[in-house]
Each structure stands twice: as structure tokens, then as C-alpha cells.
Amino acid sequence: MLKKTLLAGCALLMLSGSVLADSKIGFVNSQRILNDSPQAARAKKKIEKDFEKRDQDLQRLAKQLQGMQEAIEKNGVTMGEGERRTKEREFGELNREFQRKQREFREDLSQRQNEEMAAIFERVNKIIKQVAEAEKYDIIFQEAVYANPRIDITDRVIKALGDGAK
User: Is 45 exposed, middle or buried (0-12, 13-18, 19+ CB in 10 A)?
Assistant: First the structure.
């Protein structure tokens, strides 16, 4: 029984080896596309511009909080009990507001980045399919632990993306 299983396994490996030899395989490095494509660069700049004001507002609020904390630490000993509690309460309220705004900023930024990347990858996938059909690839992988540079078509996809952007 074991002998038959081994023979069947060897026959299957030889058959799959000949099928693989006739196959055309490609690989696309998604991270390089995000780093090098003109669409990704434009999306990053647009997001930075759109979120710049909110980021500056958060930085101002952080500086204000830092100033309040330093004032409380510096003058806390000389302040009256009521004044110190009032300042600490104001600091706590402003700190909660800052944390809320910071959390909303991160969530909005993340959502926007995901939307932009989804749009880019929708276009990338169309380009990959076009390249695969034009050059008669049997399969193209987008994720791999290792890919021989010989099968890497990332540069062709980036070039096609650039040509389509013009």
C-alpha cells in the first residue's frame, strides 16, 4: 500500500513539474507600487494637505496642555486649594478634548488612507490583469515570501500606471 502511494505521489510530482514548466508565472511587489507609483505619491500629498490644518490644531492643543501642566507644577504650591483644583479640572477637560480629537484624527486619517489605497489597488489590479493577458501569464502573485527577480513585473506595472496617469 505504501509503495503504491509513493509511486502515485512521484507520478503526480513529475506531472505537476511538467505542467509548471509550461506555465508563465509573475510577481508584483505591492509595497514597491505604494512607494514608487505616481498615483500613490499624489494620494499621499493630497491626504497630507487635507489633514494639515487638523494636525496643526492638535499640535497647538498639545502645546497648550503642556503649558498648563508646567504652570500647575510650577505654581501649584503657591496657589490656593480652590484655584489649584480649578486649574487641574480645566487641564483634565482640555486633555480629554485633546485625546478625543487625536483619536478622531487618527481614525479619519486611517479611513482616508484606506480609501485612497483601495482606489489605487483597484487600478493596479486592472493593470496587472492587462499585463497578464497581453504577455500570456498563467498566474501573477502579489504576495510572496520570496520571488526570483526574473519573474518580478512590478516595474512594468508601475510604468503602465504612469502611462495611464498622463
Answer: exposed
